[in-house]
Amino acid sequence: MPARVVVGVQWGDEGKGKIIDILASRADVVVRSQGGNNAGHTVENGGEVYKLQLIPSGILYPDTLCLLGSGVVINPKGILGEIDGLEARGVSCKNLRIDPRAHVIMPWHLEIDGLSEKMRGKGEIGTTKKGIGPCYMDKAERSGLRIYDLIHPDLFAQKARAAGELKNRLITGYYGGQPLDLDAVIAEYTVYGKRLAQYAADVSVLAYRAIRENKEVLFEGAQGTLLDIDYGTYPFVTSSHPVSGGVCVGSGVGPTLIDEVVGAAKAYTTRVGAGPFPTELLDETGDEIRNRGHEFGTVTGRPRRCGWFDAVIMRHSVRINGLTALAINKIDTLSGMGPLKVCTAYRKSDGTILRDFPATIEELAECSPVYEELDGFDGDLSGCRSFDELPESCKKYIAELERLCECPITMVGVGPSREQNLERI
Ligand code: GDP
Ligand code: IMO
Ligand code: MG
């Protein structure tokens, strides 16, 4: 049985949660390897909508083991709120495990995220203000607090006080903000630690054992390839590695143990937050996609920027993630929109044609998209239950995307629920 990775291949929100939920019907284990509650993964099942931020999207299956690897950053209050919310709806979280190496998002991380965005002014990244960047900064600087610390009250009190004192100096002295009450923070987080202790377990060991026992293991990516700290549109990115390589580091599983890498994409492109977006539509077509696709952020509620499908980005993602297959969601949103444009390459200001996504945003700024126009399709696609039921021009659109992306498209989404996913072999 395979170990399969699902990654976002655009700027996040590609429908990863839905794909994971569908694949999880056959999986024994679902693992998150990076990111934190900046992610918002929507799962629709039986008319119920679940918006998951930290808990893996396999949680709706009562026997599926759900793991948060060492590369994930944990907001204790956030995860406990999610657990309580799910359990109140009858979804048990008893199969959740968190790696003791995972770093903890502390209140000063949230504070600094907000203050540093304010300081960036017009150059802001448009972060989710969940403290993600500042938490990963401390991890890289080797001064962060980990789940192991959080669940050991004495160790935690000592480390949190030392870290908090330093952060208060930074918050007041550099950012001109208000200091945090460290006694209150330590008291509050000690209670969270006591509740979270039951979930701590070595995720690398659990995931490895499951793979060795021939169980089906799914790795659930968060964010998307273009938000990767190295391979995205730096600095308008998140602070982790949403690419498939991040799975190995963030869950402690070596690359030879992974069999398949599925990329989740939309049939068009969206982005939430600042940064370059070559195929962005700042006209009524962009508004139409946003309204038809309900393109508003799951976490922040911000309107998502919308644009045409970009095959240059897709080829970048196919390469970097080593994709074996693509799942294209939201084809239903494009129905009735008339002719559809697809970006096949970029043209630089000197006229040169680029097939590969540039390495820097400075080079990207010199590029404009080269479009191919394809026939649109009409009708309500949301009731289609097999690929063959799709209109001919829709099938042609998908076949052309497949050719341009240089990767097989094996799934097509016509709606948000489990049954609205068409398998295409
Ligand atoms: P994720 O972060 O990648 O899991 O994606 P989000 O949940 O943030 O955003 C994807 C949105 O699209 C959610 O509201 C999904 O319910 C919805 N969705 C996923 N696939 C489809 C699809 O094929 N058609 C439509 N109409 N909506 C979809
Ligand atoms: P899912 O998993 C879309 C974006 C933010 C911002 C940038 C940095 O639901 O696809 P951060 O708070 O991470 O420091 O913000 O990254 N971003 C996302 N955009 N989907 C996400 O997650 C995102 N997680 C972060 O909007 O531009
Ligand atoms: Mg999302």
Automatic annotation (TrEMBL):
Keywords: Cytoplasm, GTP-binding, Ligase, Magnesium, Metal-binding, Nucleotide-binding, Purine biosynthesis. It is found in: Cytoplasm. The keyword Magnesium applies. IMP binds at residues 13-16, 38-41, 128, 142, 223, 238, 302. It is an enzyme of class 6 (ligase). GTP binds at residues 12-18, 40-42, 304, 330-332, 413-415. GO terms for biological process: 'de novo' AMP biosynthetic process; IMP metabolic process. Pfam families: Adenylsucc_synt. InterPro entries: Adenylosuccin_syn_GTP-bd, Adenylosuccin_syn_Lys_AS, Adenylosuccinate_synth_dom1, Adenylosuccinate_synth_dom2, Adenylosuccinate_synth_dom3, Adenylosuccinate_synthetase, P-loop_NTPase. Its main location: cytoplasm. Binds 1 Mg(2+) ion per subunit. GO terms for cellular component: cytoplasm. Plays an important role in the de novo pathway of purine nucleotide biosynthesis. Catalyzes the first committed step in the biosynthesis of AMP from IMP. PANTHER family: ADENYLOSUCCINATE SYNTHETASE. Belongs to the adenylosuccinate synthetase family. This is Adenylosuccinate synthetase. It comes from Anaerotruncus colihominis DSM 17241. The gene is purA.
